[in-house]
Design brief:
26% helix, disordered N terminus, 3-stranded antiparallel beta sheet, alpha+beta, globular
Amino acid sequence: MIKMKSKPKIPLIPLLLMVVFIMITNIGASILPQEITDIVKDIDGNSYKTVKIGNIVWVSENLNVAHYRNGDPIPEAKTSAQWEECYKNEKGAWCYYNNESLNGKKYGKLYNWYAVNDSRGLAPDSTHVPSITEWQTLITTLGGESGAFSKMKSSTGFYALAGGHRYFQDCSFYSNGEIGFWWSSTKEDIWNAWYQAVHFGYSQVGKDNGGMNTGMSVRCVMN
């Protein structure tokens, strides 16, 4: 019998290191932002940049629109009485943080959940307000609640901002510069809906549900 020469063996440790490197590279590539050339425009003519994170294309700026997609105006509710009136009638409303328009240039508008859920459409064409499941997909893609904070701030192009909120009980404004709150489209019960939060003071992210009368920021995703 003629003995065949065996092929040289590849050392096991370098092979394993190569496999691990390829896996890490692939995982990293899946969460790195991919520049999107499309610019989303709302009905008021505001333009928003987008970024692809994982398999979802996110609008990377807070919504700042004052009209529904069909052209109907969304009421601006400045006073506590106006904000409460929209809540009693289950109507959409928006305001600027502290009712100061300069805050809108940086943080966008704060909306109650009735605006989010209105059938006339809050999100621009070809986009929608994400469900809490889509929010959690983003958090998972960015490393989970323990690892997503730094990536949501800047490195992925999501650009989370601590826009604060308008509290549902006394209609006062809180947490600007400390916490960002974003509505989801997911309803919890007849009083509450789910939202995503990013706490800049504690470098944490988390989800919860809160009163539909709360004023929060809105981000959109492409359909």
